[in-house]
Amino acid sequence: MLIREHARALCIACSLLLSGAAGAFAQQPAAPADIERRTMDAVVMQGDESIVLDGRLDEGVWSRAVPASDFIQVDPANGQPATEPTEVRVVYNSRALYIGVICFDSEPDRWLGYQRRRDEFLASDDRFMWTIDTFLDARSGYFFEMNPSGLMADSLFGVNGDNRPWDGIWNARVVLSEVGWTIEIEIPFRTLNFNPNSDTWGINFQRTVRRKNEDSIWMGWARNQGLRRMATAGRVTGIRNVTQGNGLDVKPYGLFTAQSAPGRGDTATRGDASAGIDLFYNPTPLLRANLTVNTDFAQTEVDQRQVNLTRFSLFFPERRDFFLDGAIFFDFGSPTNDDLRVNPFFSRRIGLTGGGEPQPIDFGTKVTGQIGGQDVGLLHVQTGEEGDVNSEAFTVARVKRRMLQQSYVGAMYTRRDVRGLDLDASQTIGLDARFATNTFAGSQNLSVAAWFLNASQPGVSSETSAFGAIIDYPNDRWNANFDMRELQRNFNPSVGFITRTDYRRYRPQLNFAPRPRNNRIVRQYTYGVTMDVQTTLDNDLIVRSLEATAFQVNLQSQDTFSVIASQRYEKLDLPFRVNSAITLPVGSEYTFSRVRVNAQTANRRVVALNGRVETGQFYSGTRHEFVANLTFRLAPGYIVYLANEINRVRLAEGRFTTKLVRVVGETQFSPFVAWVNNLQYDTQSAVLGWQSRFRWIVRPGNDLYFVYTHNWLDDPVLNRFASLDRRFATKVLYTRRF
User: Fold this and answer.
1) How far is CA 596 from CA 403, 550, 566, 613, 616, in A?
2) In the chain, which segments carry CATH 2.60.40.1190?
3) What is the torsional sign of CA 488, 489, 494, 500?
4) Domain 31-237, what fold?
5) Strand, coil or helix: what is 561?
6) DSSP line for 73-87
7) What is the per-residue pLDDT across 155-213, written as a single tens digit (0 to 9) for each?
């Protein structure tokens, strides 16, 4: 009976998805009028011409460059000229690309620039962004952004998203004036991979005037396009006779640490000094190789804690530079961000124990880039022994064959060898394919992807596969997707991340987001429905849920408000340990309904709120959740974040309350000097943690870090916080380019 019910509901949801997509073709605005691609010329410096990087744009070469201008609004008045003009010029010499920007402003004293720290998100500030597609392949590129306070941020991006933590070596200066703000940017050619035989790159520019919540762009102003869709970007031509030099970066580091662990009976403070080195080499303009020896990640920011009241393991993103560099070359399939993500390669499996403790990395090698028509990624890492943890060797290989304009077919291989044990290696092989276009039914985005994985483990020979497919229609007014997957009982990718096995899943989703015309208050409404049906491989229904966005409104002020209702049926096929004292047994069945209210004020406000209240049934009882995140922007560079999460759970088997509190204070002295303090406590771990992190970018590529970390246990016996461990680290990194 239940199977028939969920099959019927699934058919209804699929029909909604298809009818919604069909309706979109009739109601979506026509393709934009700026199909004719804009092109700008890069001007080469002559003789002894040079640029002093001061943000003033007063060198003669700038006057010879014809600017890119006439930006068009994306929001709020889509397709109309920008209300504040912007001019962008591009010049170069044999060593670097220079970009000069004038952001004119009719009210130059009303700019917003709270953030200064490298790579902070700029949802609160005025900003200028640009993307560069050095291979002119419309698939991937470099993203950069700045604000009036001089913040510098960058990332790599591809078809599966951003690699935000990428830190390229480049420099820039900002000057405020009576006409607005100007930027002078220097990007060494050694920082970029490019084809030296091509003098034309893809390029695009976008500007945000935050007090107006206005976004304007040079090319691709339709809301289905955007800055990172390089298929609709402009062109910059005339970049000739430039190279990456020898393509070699040598990056040694020196490290001093002092640590103790009173909570483990080790009260003595132990000091240690070490050194290591990273080598980066470009054997071809399209390929990048990296060797790291005696790797250490002492400067890595601490994880943001999460409260887990689900049946599955929490996912914490990678934060270590070696693994973040070139990470987009190892993307597989169409990653999802929900509880049932499937990642055949998850780099946090390397060099970290199951509890998140660091394990020494003796050396690692990595090659990423392009060979012929293929994107390739190769990785090999050797970890050292640490206590009872054996040395291990990890190998990952990834290749994607480019097809058409935005599509590919690919394969992946991972291997994990445990040294010192007489066991065969754990291996995973995978195949995936993706077809994508931004011209479906005229100007719509559509992608179809499929993947297959097989993970072999010592002593396991059957039911070790997984496969799935997803259809995605991500557009402004109509947004729909359908995700299907199956994971067999013994599927366990040893270098990957999964939360459970032995299930099939069908998940259709449909959102309708109309924009009222000539409305000075409301920018966009959103209504949506998401269905999730999961069965075991024996066709026993274990999850059936329906979530409806009953109402969401995005205001012109960029404040948002939403109401979401859900109903969920669950049959536990595994025990569910809700907390240390409560475990729900296998075979238990529950149906529960919940309501969630979200409210978020605009990030540009001096005090900004992001809050959530969720209440309703929860398995055998109720759960009430209260979340409040406050941001205080005291002045440019001085920001305080407060986060508070409370869950009150009342079940037939018992009751409990969880709390999580986080306080983060950022003192951003300049775009190159920042001091961040992170204090967090949660009742699940009963641990209070503090990290104090100071970073000085002496010059791009050369960094000095001071990091202090201290953890205390909330001891109910002693009725106080007892010191668990503490560590101080000083790290110096230096980059020499050849």
Assistant:
1) 43, 10, 8, 6, 9
2) 31-237
3) positive
4) Immunoglobulin-like (2.60.40)
5) strand
6) EEESSTTSBPSS-EE
7) 988 766 666 667 889 999 999 999 999 999 999 999 998 888 899 999 999 999 999 99
CB atoms under 10 Å from CB of 576, counted, come to 17
Q: How far is CA 29 from CA 222, 385, 528, 606, 704, in A?
A: 9, 60, 20, 36, 51
**pTM for the structure as a whole:** 0.87
Is the distance from CB of 452 to CB of 442 less than 8 angstroms?
no
Please name the residues in contact with 357: beta carbons below 8 A apart, sequence gap of 6 or more.
none
- Residue 232 token pair: 């609709």
| Residue whose entry in the numeric block shows the structure tokens 């640590």 | 259
- Which runs of consecutive H residues, i.e. helices, occur in 249-380? 321-324
What letter represents residue 147's amino acid?
N
- The DSSP call for residue 231 is G
Rounded to whole angstroms, how far apart are CA atoms 102 and 68? 11
* pLDDT tens per residue across span 21-72: 434 333 333 334 445 789 999 999 998 899 999 999 999 999 999 999 999 9
Residue 1 DSSP SS3 = coil
8 Å CB contact between 204 and 37: no
Q: How far is CA 592 from CA 451, 547, 615, 656, in A?
A: 33, 12, 11, 19
Measured between alpha carbons, how far is 738 from 731 in angstroms, rounded to an integer? Answer: 23
